[in-house]
Amino acid sequence: MSTIPTPTRTAATSRRFASADIARIAVFAALIAALGLPGPIPIFGGGVPITAQTLGIMLAGAVLGPWRGATAVLIFNILVAVGLPLLSGARGGLGVFIGPSGGYVLGWILGAFLTGLIVHSGVVPTWWRTALGTVVGGILAIYAVGIPVQSAVTGLALPQAALQSLVFLPGDLLKATVATVLTMALWRAYPRAFGRTPAAR
User: Fold this and answer.
1) CATH of the domain at 135
2) Separation of alpha carbons 201 and 186, rounded Å
3) C-alpha angle 32-63-25 in degrees, rounded to nearest 5
4) What secondary structure does DSSP assign to 42-94, as a single string?
5) What span, in angstroms and rounded, lies between the C-alpha atoms of 86 and 189?
6) pLDDT for 148-174, tens place per residue?
7) Neighbours of 89 (CB within 10 A)
8) pLDDT tens track for 19-76
9) Residue 36 is part of which domain span?
10) pTM to 2 decimals?
């Protein structure tokens, strides 16, 4: 008789975990959108503005992990693609993805995934893994996708586009620092926000 309720409890627990994951994903998709409200800061004439939304990408990966973080960004990008003005400067629509900044926006998915992969590679987040993850995923991976697309769209040579992107680096390093501090503070204050640990998965 004791074997009957056990699967029921397990199924209920699994449903609760699934619901919690969906809620976390939705929250971070909304956070990325909210970080676009201050508007873009244009840089010279390159066509790719500085935006606070990359901070949300770093946080999504660091807190949610690789798959849930990337899913949150994917959902955000789908909403942008269907026309919702969620990008910094109230931009939306498919045209965003074929513009100079399109590669960066698409690179956000990879950025969140790699950030989460590095941060969640241990049982618990650590300062050094979080900092490394936000830099590798939140900066280098996004640049790796964004710079070639910017070069192709604007007609700039690849080295010139890469050089032009260096103006983003100080701000992105600052965002990586902020994301690291916020992630570790959240881990100490409310570890349940991170969902299941890597060991539990």
Assistant:
1) 1.10.1760.20
2) 20
3) 55
4) --TTSS--B-THHHHHHHHHHHH-HHHHHHHHHHHHHHHHTT---BTTTB-SG
5) 29
6) 999 999 999 999 999 988 888 988 999
7) 14
8) 889 999 999 999 999 999 876 665 544 445 578 999 999 999 999 999 999 999 999 9
9) 5-194
10) 0.85
